[in-house]
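Fold it.
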Amino acid sequence: MKIKKALVPVLLVFLFCALLLPAQAQEELSADRPDNSQGPGIISRGYVQLEAGYNYQKLNANIRTYAYPTALLRIGLLEGVELRVQGAVKDSVIENGTERHIKGWGPLSVGTKVRIWEEKGWRPEAALSAMLTLPLASEVFKPDNPEPQLGLGFSNALSEKLELTYTLGYGWTDGEPVRSYGANLTRQFIDKLMLYLEVFGSKEKSETAEHQADVGILYLVLPNLQFDVAAGRRLNKAAPHYFFTTGLAFRLPR
């Protein structure tokens, strides 16, 4: 499996900007990729962060999907409040003796994440996210109507180098309600390297629940640039067979 050529310019721009801009004393970079258990971390006021990558998924014996690049723009509006804009270019490959490619822009989503409270003792840090998927996409990927997505994210620092993140979500896909969950355990090994283990899943109305697990590595290349890679597989037959993702998170200094 080869990373699509369309992603290479994006990666080069990330690296060039990170090297060009001066490093500043600032808070630790926290990204919402590549894991699915997006925690309560929020971009501080005045910061702008872009998270982008490549995603490959084998849904079943006949269908593979690609997204390159997936992109999430996060802007710190106020302390504890961020603006979020998300989208992707998609390419689905269907194999039935021959290959047929379906390409186009995926739906655009806009929304926010708001901190509910800070961590205190055993009380986890918590945040509420609200996104609206708009019918702005290539015809093959466009939803019929706007679809809201809500999520509650929590995190507990179990020790200086070990953190538990868990989320609950509720939204709509193709007009049907979908419930979701995710939980991951992240361990810092050295100052710049972290490893996480995760389980996540979703349940659409009248459909069998899908459960998956993955493992990922996060490496802080520079104070404002993080590289990631992750891979996962299904835990039950209803879920996609497996997936692979890699990408970068880059924050502009204030």
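The chain has one domain: 5-252.
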